[in-house]
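**Protein of interest**
===
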Amino acid sequence: MSSALELLHRVFGHTAFRGEQAQIVQHVTDGGDALVLMPTGGGKSLCYQLPALLRDGCGLVVSPLIALMQDQVEALRQLGVRAAYLNSTLDAAAAAEVERQLLAGELDLLYVAPERLLGARCLNLIDRAPIALFAIDEAHCVSQWGHDFRPEYRELTILHERWPQIPRIALTATADAPTQREIAERLNLEDARRFVSSFDRPNLRYRVVHKDNGNRQLLDFLSGHRGESGIVYAFSRRRVETVAEQLVAAGIRALPYHAGMDASLRAANQRRFLQEDGVVMVATIAFGMGIDKPDVRFVAHVDLPKSIEGYYQETGRAGRDGEPAEAWLCYGLGDVVNLRQLIQQGEAGEERKRLELRKLDSLLGYCESTECRRQSLLGWFGEAHAGACGNCDNCLDPPRSWDGTEAARKALSCVYRTGQRFGAGHVIDVLRGVESEKVSRFGHESLSTYGIGRDLDARQWSSVFRQLVAAGLLEADIERHGALRLTAASAPVLRGERSLRFRAETAKPSGGARRSRNGGGAAAAAAMELDEDAMVRFNALREWRSSTAREQNVPAYVIFHDATLRAIAEHSPEDLDELGRIPGIGASKLERYGDAVLQHLFDHR
């Protein structure tokens, strides 16, 4: 491994491997196939980039997102790696030049979209080119049960069938046990060595809040992340546009992103998010897969995601640099109704619909759990977490629970007495004895359940109904526009044969209590570790980095990560030798930027 370590330091500026990187690199370099499961930010890319540099020929990387290939390639070129991409954004002349470089052995890494790879021209090109390995990134896209299924990935078995002597490495950050088995089966990787790293992201703080006034709650959350880059996920295109407008009106640099936008505007917004500091992207889940921006300090969901796998992958786009980051989820019972309707009215087969509904129920159970969030999340992927994590809302502020058996019986009875035809709002009005026009119109003031729930306020009853749905005792009837109806599991509760405990609804936060617990943002917290002089140097270096990135039309993090700039500011090296010992500075970046960095340090001493 001495040559791999030397290359790791000289090219990437790191002095040691993390986790199983060393074993993976050695295995693939020796010609072995591998299936790698590693969390976002865990260093997956190195697992195929280093073997590609160590083996003869070019490493061919199958990547599903054309929009991000340019940034991935530019980041490698900054390191002195001969990298290129082949996709539909290139004109004929540019594509021909990349093909010439590949055939001439002038490339170390080539990124290709699966659709392009499967074309006859590209397959014939590979026949004539020196290929070091095949890397299949985002390998979970092969699974028809996954959240990012791409049918083209199913055809990638051709790599093994046509070139069995070339090693393959498939990588993903999101795959439960069934998806792992399907990846191995669909890609003919049953005999490949499997490397499964911990799915834990200890730098992420998980928080779940119940939707009360979603817009206000989001602004309260963002008040603790002023000036930081982040992603806000919303359920629909219309919701994305509305939330983005509200954030802009509140003085936040927010941009929308969804599939219904003009393609050029969508691409421009993504470019701004990648290249500028402190931009908040409001998006549907169409945004984000493969995003390499390391300094995303938060991911906020203003609506419930579809599954735990999707939630895990989306939150994993925060804190890729290992610095503190936050995953915040705000949801309500209406989100459950909307998602169930989306699933049941979709074109998928009944088996697929049942699976998606089970996954939604599992996510709802995660949201309502009183246990450590990290334990629950990792448990879904078959990984145990020893003890409480100390970095989620349930650990930091343990929720109280209460005996909800009697309240549950009242709620279930009222749903039944009102004919299982209404949503939670109306049933709560009946329980609380509200004299509304709707209650009078249906004569529900004469029901035996009218007014039997005056001991709880509307917010507490909303929590009860949410938890009854999470427990599988109630479900939304999509054909009746989300009306609640009893399930078979509710019978033992109504008969007094089963007791329930509910999570206590916390009081509404007030004033300054609404701010993020990390004291004004993860980046601010990290910066506070620097003394006053180092902070001046750090800010000066960030300004220089932004200017340099604009000149080159590349994302700022491609020049240097924040963590690298912080280390430079803290240690204040006086010459190139000292600067070269800073983690994240390889030989190419030292040559390209060393003198400029030292000059800025000298100017701000």
The mean pLDDT is 88. DSSP finds 28 helices and 17 strands in the chain. The first strand starts at residue 34 and ends at 37.
